[in-house]
Design a protein that fits this description.
alpha/beta; Rossmann fold; 7 strands; HAD-like_SerB; hydrolase; magnesium; amino-acid biosynthesis
Length: about 220
């Protein structure tokens, strides 16, 4: 696996349009949104324990998500604003996105988290594409269920492929990065796949790794 300071010879170039797709939780932002929601519900430790096992690849992600979301039943819909305010962009995230946009690139995010929080983050950061789960709400409160299909590792990879086609970007000009096991397929599919401060299984699988929490280091891997 190459170190973050070694530029791959066949890396995507900033001299042509490209597409970068990244995970949200613990990649675009420092936190895990599901854990923040768990804190609001008073079940933070239980939720965080399941999150850690799911991201390490020890649990089926969809099953683990349903289990964690079930613990959130009864939270008021206003919790989304509180959680959004408590999330922090990872160091260098906004600078990376701005730099890519200046070179004609597009940026997308794919998340096992939730549109109710991700959409606000994406709007603030100027992100072009987004994919996330949705939480079911009834009478102003979370029901403890996910609304619609759950974003899986396959859906993350497929989003990368679909957005590249829509943007007219060859796969050689794509970058994918994330930290969890469900990011591995898109990391392997991209022209440049990066494990970002990742779990051991992801770091072993990914062609490249960045182990410092600074997203501008991605630029060092591009030509």
């Amino acid at each position: 696996m190459s170190e973050e300071t070694l530029q791959p010879l066949d890396a995507p170039t900033l001299d042509a349009p490209g597409l970068l797709v990244m995970d949200v939780d613990s990649t675009l932002i420092d936190e895990e949104v599901i854990d923040l929601l768990g804190d609001q519900a008073g079940v933070g430790a239980q939720v965080a324990a399941v999150t850690a096992r799911a991201m390490a690849g020890e649990l089926d992600f969809a099953q683990a998500l349903r289990e964690r979301v079930g613990l959130l039943a009864g939270l008021p819909e206003s919790v989304f604003d509180r959680v959004r305010r408590s999330a922090h962009f990872t160091r260098g995230a906004l600078e990376l996105i701005d730099a890519l946009h200046r070179h004609g690139w597009k940026v997308g995010v794919v998340s096992g988290g939730f549109h109710e929080v991700v959409d606000g983050l994406a709007a603030e950061a100027g992100i072009d594409h987004r994919l996330a789960n949705r939480l079911e709400v009834a009478d102003g409160r979370l029901t403890g269920r996910v609304s619609g299909p759950i974003v899986t590792r396959v859906m993350k990879r497929d989003a990368l492929l679909a957005w590249a086609r829509a943007d007219g970007v060859p796969m050689a000009q794509t970058v994918a990065l994330g930290d969890g096991a469900n990011d591995i397929p898109m990391i392997l599919e991209a022209g440049l796949g990066v494990a970002f401060c990742a779990k051991p299984a992801v770091r072993r699988a990914a062609p490249h790794a960045i182990d410092r929490r600074d997203l501008t280091l991605v630029l060092d891997l591009l030509r």
